[in-house]
Specification:
heterodimer; A: 489 residues; alpha/beta; eight-stranded mixed β-sheet; six-stranded mixed β-sheet; 14 strands; globular; B: 358 residues; alpha+beta; five-stranded antiparallel β-sheet; 11 helices; 16 strands; 24% strand
Chain lengths: 489, 358
C-alpha cells in the first residue's frame, strides 16, 4: 500500500509539476509566482476551492483515521486546479535551458522528499510535497535565483563592454504603458537622420536588454533606444548603471503592477530612477505626479517637458495637432527625445505621417464576417481601456457595439474597482458586454448590472470569438479589450 | 564528413531580407549547415528548418554560438572544432556580406564560397567605381558623379537627379531631387549618405530591364524582367525602387517583350559586364532603356532570393541553381595568395635592423 501511494505520488507530481513550471515560466521565474497563481485558481471557482480542501482533508484523515485516505491527495493533484491546462493555448511550455534547470531542481527536491519518506516510513513526506507542488516550484525558483543571476552576469558584462566600446547615445524609455509604442515612434522618426537600433518588443529587462545589445546592436549605430520595464524599486537604476542613458524618458504613469508596488507614488519613484544618470530627461507632464517630477528635477537637470492634451506640445519646439490613429502622448515623448538628441523635431515631423502602428494596441481591422474589430488585447491599463472604448463608440456608431474582455490584471488593490468601473462605463455605452474567464468575473458583472448592455459570460477567448461571429454582422463593431494568457483562471 | 553551408544575416540594412534568402536556400538543399550572422556581427549555427519569425528578436532559441577564426584550416569553429565545409553559399545582401569584407575573411580562412571574390564584390558595391569601370571598358552607362562633402557646382547634366548612397546594394536611401539645391540639402540630412553619395540624371520616359546571369556550369542568362513603373513620374518610381531586396513586389513583366535588337543588346552587354566586373555565381544586372538605347545601371552580386524567380526561360529549379553555385565554389578558390619573391634572400642580405636605422 505504501509503495503504491509513493508511485502514484511520483507519477502525479510530474503532471502537476509541469503545470506550475509553465506558470513560473510565464511569470518570468519570479519566486512566489506559482503560489500566487495557485491562490488565484483556488479562489476562482467553488469547485477548485472544495477540491483543494478535499486534498487537505485527505492528509488530515491519513494522520488521524486511516493511511488509505492519503490516496485522495495524488488523485486531486492530478486534476487541480481545473482549468489550468498542461499544454497552453496562448503560451506552451518552452524547454529552454533555464526551464530545464528549474525542472531538475524541482525533481531533485521531490525525489529527496519521496526517498526520505520511504526510508523513514513517513507518508507525510510524500503527500505534502504533492499537495503543495507549487510551493516546491517556488522554493526551487528561490534557490536558483542567485545562480541564474550570476549566469546572466556573463552576458550583461559582455553587453556593457560592447556599449562602452561604441560611440553612441542611449535613449532609455520607461512608463507604466506606451513604452513600446514610444520606442517604435522614436526609431521611426530618427531613422532618416541617424543609425538607430531599438530593443525588440518585449526585451525590457536585464537579460532581454543584454541579449538585444549582444545580438542586435550593429557596429556603427548612433542611437540605441532601450525600453526599460520594472517590477520593483532599484531595477531601473541597476539597468542604467550598465546602460547609461543620455536621454531618460517617462511616458505615462498608471496603476500597472500595483500589486508589487503598493502605491502610485512608489511607481513614480521607481520610474524616475531613469533620470538619475541621464543628461537630459523627457517627461510627459499630463499626469500631475509626473508634472511634479519634472518640476523637482528642473533645477538640477535639463528636462524637456512634453504634453498631449488636445495638441502635442514639446517645450522649446512648438505645438502640433495629434495625427489620426496616433497615440498623442507617445508621439509627444518621441519628439521630445528627438529634441533632446539635438535633432530638430520640425525636421523629423514629416516622417510622422507613416508612424508604425503597434499590433494589438487599438489596431482596427474588419473581420471576415464584416464587422469591425478593435484589437486592444495587449492592453491592461484603465486609461488605455477607456480610450479604446471611446474608439469603439466612434467606429461603431452605425451598428451594434460589443466589448469582449477578461478585465485587467496586476492592478493590486484597485483591480476590483477599476474593472467594475470599466464594466459600468462599457455597459452604459455599448450594446453587449462579454466577460471572459473567471479572473475578473465578479467586478465586471457587478459593474455591468445596471447598464443597458446585455451581459454574456464565457469561459474562454475562443468561446468569445464564437459569440462575436454568431451575434455580430456587417456594420457592427467589437472591442477585444485585453487578453489573459491561459495560466490565468 | 564535408558538407556545405549557407551564411545569412549580418550587420546590414538588408539583414532581414538576407534571412529570407538564406532560409530559402537552406530549405531547398538537403544536409546543409545554416549559419546566422547577427546584426551585431556574431555567428550562430541554426536549424535549417527555422522560420523567418524565429529571427524577429535575434538568434532563434536553439541557436548554437560559433566563433570565426581567420586562419588556414579554421573558419567557423564550434566548441573549438572547425566545421569541415567544402563550400559556403553567401546569402548576405548589402553591407559587409556582399561588399568583399566577408569574402576577404573567408579567403584568409581558406573557405571556398559562392559569388565573386573580395575585389569584385567591393567593386559591385561601389556605385561610383562600378560606373567608372563600365565607362572605362567602353560600355554605355549613365554619367555618375560623386556628391562631395563641401560646396559643389551642379554637374554637367540636367535635373531631375537621382541620388543614391555610394555603397549599398539595395535601393534603400535612394532619393529623387528636382533640382541641384535639393541634392545638396539631402546629403547633410540623410544618414544613408554619410558614407558618400552619387548623383546621376533621372531619366523620365525610360524603363528598367533586369536580368540575372550565372557563370556555372557555363555562362547563362535568365529571362529579362521589366518591373512596371506606374505612370506619373518620380514618386511612383521611388515607390517601386524602394521595394526591398531583389524581388520587386509591384507589378512586372516577365519575360519582358523586347524588340530583337534590345534583347540582343542585353545579351551582349551582360556578357561584357560579367567579364569587366568579375561576376561569379548568380548576379543581377540592371539596365535602363530609353528610345532603344541601353545603359548599364547597376550590378547586384548577391541579389535577393538569388534572383531565382528570373530563371523562367530557360526554367531552372532553385535547388539546381543553388547546387550549381556550390559546385562552382567548391571547384576553386577565388583568391590565391602568393609569397613568390619572399624566399628569404632579402632577409639574409639585410644584416641587422640596427644597421638599417643608422
Amino acid at each position: 500500500m505504501f509503495w503504491l501511494l509513493a508511485m502514484a505520488c511520483a507519477a502525479v507530481s510530474v503532471l502537476a509539476g509541469l503545470r506550475w513550471l509553465r506558470v513560473a515560466q510565464r511569470e518570468h521565474y519570479l519566486p512566489g509566482s506559482a503560489s500566487t497563481f495557485a491562490d488565484r485558481w483556488r479562489r476562482s471557482s467553488l469547485l477548485n476551492f472544495v477540491l483543494d480542501l478535499v486534498s487537505l482533508f485527505g492528509i488530515v484523515a491519513m494522520l488521524i483515521l486511516d493511511a488509505r485516505w492519503a490516496v485522495i491527495v495524488p488523485v486531486v493533484a492530478a486534476l487541480w486546479p481545473i482549468g489550468l491546462s498542461l499544454k497552453g493555448r496562448t503560451s506552451p511550455l518552452a524547454w529552454t535551458d533555464r526551464l530545464r534547470r528549474l525542472a531538475i531542481t524541482v525533481a531533485a527536491i521531490l525525489i529527496s522528499a519521496f526517498t526520505a519518506g520511504a526510508l523513514l516510513d513517513l507518508a507525510l513526506l510524500i503527500v505534502v510535497p504533492v499537495h503543495l507542488v507549487y510551493v516546491v516550484v517556488d522554493i526551487s525558483l528561490w534557490v536558483l535565483a542567485p545562480y541564474e543571476k550570476r549566469l546572466g552576469a556573463k552576458w550583461v558584462e559582455k553587453a556593457a563592454a560592447t556599449l562602452r566600446s561604441m560611440d553612441l547615445d542611449v535613449v532609455a524609455i520607461t512608463g507604466s504603458y506606451g513604452k513600446t509604442t514610444t520606442k517604435n515612434y522614436v526609431a521611426h522618426l530618427l531613422a532618416g537622420t541617424k543609425r538607430v537600433v531599438a530593443s525588440p518588443a518585449s526585451f525590457n529587462n536585464r537579460m532581454g536588454l543584454a541579449r538585444a545589445i549582444n545580438e542586435n546592436l550593429t557596429p556603427g549605430t548612433e542611437v540605441f533606444v532601450a525600453e526599460m520595464g520594472t517590477y520593483g524599486p532599484g531595477e531601473i537604476a541597476e539597468l542604467c548603471e550598465w546602460i547609461p542613458p543620455k536621454v531618460g524618458a517617462i511616458v505615462a504613469i498608471g496603476p500597472v503592477h500595483l500589486e508589487r508596488f503598493k502605491t502610485l507614488e512608489n511607481i513614480v519613484r521607481s520610474k524616475a530612477e531613469i533620470l538619475e544618470r541621464a543628461e537630459i530627461g523627457v517627461i510627459c507632464v499630463d499626469h500631475p505626479l509626473l508634472a511634479q517630477v519634472a518640476e523637482d528635477r528642473a533645477a538640477t537637470k535639463e528636462i524637456v517637458e512634453v504634453s498631449a492634451g488636445n495638441r502635442i506640445a514639446v517645450s522649446g519646439a512648438g505645438v502640433m495637432d495629434v495625427p489620426d490613429g496616433v497615440f498623442g502622448a507617445n508621439l509627444a515623448v518621441a519628439l521630445g527625445i528627438c529634441r533632446a538628441l539635438g535633432v530638430d523635431p520640425d525636421e523629423v515631423i514629416a516622417r510622422a505621417a507613416d508612424l508604425p502602428t503597434a499590433e494589438h494596441r487599438q489596431s482596427v481591422t474588419t473581420g471576415v464576417a464584416g464587422f469591425t474589430i478593435i484589437d486592444d488585447t495587449f492592453n491592461s491599463n484603465p486609461a488605455g481601456a477607456r480610450s479604446a472604448l471611446e474608439l469603439l463608440t466612434e467606429v461603431g456608431a452605425q451598428g451594434r457595439t460589443a466589448v469582449i474582455t477578461p478585465g485587467m490584471v496586476e492592478l493590486g488593490p484597485v483591480q476590483y474597482e477599476e474593472n467594475r468601473a470599466f464594466a459600468e462605463e462599457s455597459a452604459s455605452r455599448v450594446d453587449h458586454l462579454v466577460i471572459v474567464g473567471r479572473t475578473n468575473r465578479k467586478p465586471l458583472r457587478e459593474g455591468s448590472a445596471h447598464g443597458k448592455a446585455s451581459v454574456t459570460v464565457v469561459a474562454s477567448r475562443d468561446e468569445a470569438v464564437e459569440w462575436a461571429r454568431a451575434n455580430l454582422g456587417v456594420g457592427d463593431a467589437v472591442l477585444y479589450e485585453n487578453d489573459l494568457p491561459d495560466h490565468y483562471p | 564528413m564535408s558538407r556545405s553551408a549557407v551564411v545569412f544575416g549580418g550587420p546590414s540594412d538588408e539583414h532581414d531580407i538576407s534571412i529570407l534568402t538564406g532560409l530559402q536556400v537552406a530549405r531547398a538543399l538537403e544536409d546543409i549547415e545554416a549559419i546566422y550572422w547577427t546584426k551585431s556581427g556574431e555567428w550562430y549555427s541554426v536549424d535549417p528548418e527555422s522560420e523567418a519569425v524565429d529571427f524577429i528578436d535575434g538568434a532563434p532559441r536553439k541557436a548554437r554560438e560559433m566563433a570565426f577564426v581567420a586562419a588556414p584550416g579554421q573558419g567557423f569553429v564550434m566548441k573549438r572544432k572547425p566545421l569541415d565545409l567544402d563550400a559556403v553559399l553567401i546569402a548576405c545582401h548589402g553591407g559587409p556580406g556582399e561588399d568583399g569584407t566577408l569574402q576577404g575573411l573567408f579567403d584568409l580562412a581558406g573557405l571556398r564560397y559562392t559569388g565573386p571574390g573580395q575585389a569584385a564584390s567591393a567593386l559591385g558595391m561601389d556605385k561610383l567605381a562600378f560606373g567608372a569601370a563600365m565607362a572605362a571598358a567602353g560600355l554605355p552607362t549613365l554619367p555618375r558623379t560623386l556628391v562631395t562633402k563641401g560646396d559643389q557646382e551642379a554637374p554637367d547634366f540636367e535635373g531631375p537627379y537621382i541620388v543614391k548612397p555610394r555603397f549599398g546594394g539595395s535601393s534603400i536611401g535612394i532619393e529623387i531631387a528636382e533640382d541641384w539645391s535639393t541634392v545638396t540639402a539631402l546629403k547633410s540630412s540623410s544618414r544613408f549618405f554619410d558614407q558618400g553619395a552619387v548623383v546621376e540624371p533621372f531619366f523620365t520616359g525610360s524603363r528598367d530591364l533586369q536580368v540575372a546571369v550565372r557563370t556555372y556550369p557555363r555562362w547563362e542568362m535568365s529571362a529579362v524582367e521589366a518591373p512596371l513603373r506606374a505612370e506619373g513620374g518620380i514618386y511612383s518610381y521611388d515607390q517601386k525602387y524602394l521595394a526591398w531586396g531583389g524581388e520587386v513586389t509591384g507589378g512586372r513583366e516577365l519575360p519582358a517583350s523586347l524588340e530583337d535588337s534590345i534583347a540582343q543588346g542585353i545579351a551582349d552587354l551582360s556578357q561584357r559586364v560579367t567579364d569587366v566586373a568579375g561576376l561569379r555565381g548568380i548576379a543581377r544586372i540592371d539596365f535602363l532603356e530609353k528610345g532603344g538605347e541601353l545603359f548599364v545601371n547597376e550590378v547586384n552580386t548577391i541579389p535577393g532570393s538569388m534572383a531565382v524567380y528570373l530563371w523562367v526561360d530557360p526554367t531552372i529549379e532553385r535547388a539546381q541553381l543553388f547546387k550549381d553555385m556550390l559546385a562552382e565554389a567548391a571547384g576553386g578558390r577565388t583568391r590565391v595568395f602568393s609569397t613568390a619573391g619572399s624566399d628569404g634572400t632579402a632577409l639574409r642580405s639585410a644584416g641587422t635592423i640596427a644597421s638599417k636605422l643608422g
